[in-house]
Amino acid sequence: MDYIKKLSRFIKPYKSYAVLNIICNIFYALFSTLAMVSLMPMINVLFGESEKVYNKPLYKGVKHLKDYLENYLNYIVTTTSENDGPQRALFYMIVLIISLFLLKNIFNYLALFFITFLKNGVLRDLRDEIYLKVITLPISFYSEKKKGDIIARISGDVTEVKNSMLSVLELIVKEPLTILFAIIAMFAISTKLTIFVFIFIPVAGLIISRIGKSLKRKSDKVQREQGVFLSTLEETLGGLKVIKGFNAESIFYSRFKESTNRFYNFSNTLMNRQNLASPTSEFLGIATIAALLWYGGNMVMVEQTLSGGAFIGYMALAYQILTPAKAISKASYQVKSGNAAAERVLYVLETKSSLEDLPDAIIKQDFEKEITIENISFKYEDDLVLKNFSVNVPKGKSIALVGQSGSGKSTIANLVTRFYDVTEGSIKIDGIDIRNLTKKSLRSLMGLVTQDSILFNDTVKNNILLGKENATDDEVIEALKIANAWEFVKDLPKGIETNIGDSGNKLSGGQKQRLSIARAVLKNPPIMILDEATSALDTESERLVQVALENMMKNRTSIVIAHRLSTIQNADTIVVMQKGEIAEQGKHNELIAKNGIYKKLVDMQSFDS
């Protein structure tokens, strides 16, 4: 139940709805009991068992409230029967019962009405907060987690938590009060009979709690498996071309079927255990009623210490306890299964980002002098990817990082943009360590174009506007022109308002990359980071993209990570990397003259082409 405390802050904004729900539930419980108690005088009128009271009773305080109400009711029944006949008295009793049942149901509806706002508000806020956490957690978090598992947590698990938290709300107020009022009324009718009933309740409670013990464990398996098949689905949708190209449909289908089969088995076990709650509690309730019939019937017929009307009213109250008792047992199961879901949700919410801004982090508005990378080392897990790497990038200059795959080039881009933090050393902008800057202000100084053109299922315009949210259409078109993208965008069916499909799949690789560049152009940052921006393109697309990059890099500080060396010959400094260290550095002509690693790389690419 500890998780309820942790998640209770989501209920606080809706506490007024919770209070109104509690008030309505109090009245619901009260009128539920009064509706059952009101059966007694009606039965007494029917069978002529009402005590004759001709004088209006006097109220003598709370201590004698029960006798006063009973005598007053009998006084009304007696005078009405004498003056207008027993049918009129019966009619009044029926009106009383209908009124009480109507009030009970009105308050039940109002309680549900108010809790609806609380339920859906909690669900919305919980999802919003998890989504915010998902987009603020560092990229390293997702290298360990499957996307489908995160989707399962933000959808199914959050719904499960909402249901279980609100079951507790019902558990605390509505059902216990209904039981409490019914028990008070039962004691008022017959203390002896009520004590007899209470012998059976602990036995029933023990059996019900036994059933619920394994629910949390079984529920956790169900939710984990849901994450597995959602991950498989997400990977399938992302890799359909490869799956079809390698005729691997049957492999992925088998993998998905295995997961859904496990989900099927886990769900069956869980639901059958949950389904056992209601019939078990109902059977135990009926067993209690059967014992009541025997013992109470004895009091009516043999001992004659209880009237028939009182006994039937008592039986109605005893049966009324069954429904809330069943609801409590069901809600307690929901709480147990919600426990597992809550742990999965809280895992995301409570994960601390290793890249949090410092409390006194600096907001840097502009870039003035240089980027300094000083003796940095970095490892993703155990092995160092970069070792004592140092380089200086003055404002307005371009530096190119080249080398074979795995030499640590892209890691530099990830560290400068602070997607990861360095293991040792420091990266400074204008002499300030980037860890002392807010991430937002750091990244606002940078434009990033990656090898994979990451575009969204939206219009050309909205994809470009990520660079500058409030840009005009003219600014968007200007950015497209600089990026060499306007030539194909203007021919699209709706121009910049054309939807480009999931991940921009309606466009070619070169077109997608030019849109990525247009997005960076519109942002107009002082520092550009190009991470193998042309390596995935054909020669024609590469030429167009290269022109676009050159347009964009004019008078701008650039860090270019390049696979194709033809694209970086004009860089102010070329750094040749090997196994995370600097092997050579200098201008293109200087490095060619050295006849070292760079010359070999150039010769290899010349030969390949």
From TrEMBL:
This is ABC transporter ATP-binding protein. GO terms for cellular component: plasma membrane. It comes from the Bacteria. SMART domains: AAA. The keyword Transmembrane helix applies. Coiled coil: none annotated. It is a multi-pass membrane protein. It is found in: Cell membrane. The keyword rRNA processing does not apply. PROSITE patterns: ABC_TM1F (PS50929), ABC_TRANSPORTER_1 (PS00211), ABC_TRANSPORTER_2 (PS50893). Keywords: ATP-binding, Membrane, Nucleotide-binding, Transmembrane, Transmembrane helix, Transport. Residues 371-604 form the ABC transporter domain. Pfam families: ABC_membrane, ABC_tran. InterPro entries: AAA+_ATPase (IPR003593), ABC1_TM_dom (IPR011527), ABC1_TM_sf (IPR036640), ABC_transporter-like_ATP-bd (IPR003439), ABC_transporter-like_CS (IPR017871), P-loop_NTPase (IPR027417), Type_1_exporter (IPR039421). The chain crosses the membrane at residues 20-47, 89-118, 171-189, 195-212, 276-295.
